[in-house]
Amino acid sequence: MYASVRKYRSSDPAEVIRRADEGFIPLVRQVDGFKAYYMADSGDGGLFTITVCDDQAGVEDSVDKARAWVSENAADLIEGAPEVSNGEVRASA
Prior knowledge:
Layout: E1 2-9, H1 13-28, E2 34-43, E3 46-53, H2 56-73, E4 83-88
């Protein structure tokens, strides 16, 4: 399994979450090997997402889809580029 963690800054995290729930989640579910997606509000304008897929290709596809989706649907609410970390899951519960 592979995971991607993306950290964002937003002027309106609640609105980003609403838009993602309606628009991005259906897209990421179509990624080959998709396992799970989570979006969390870390407070003070911070958001982070976690995507889990069977393999590295799925995670990379999810990152590409997220980049395109944010550009088209939430760029007005996102400050700068996200921090993105991808890697192989080595432990889980």
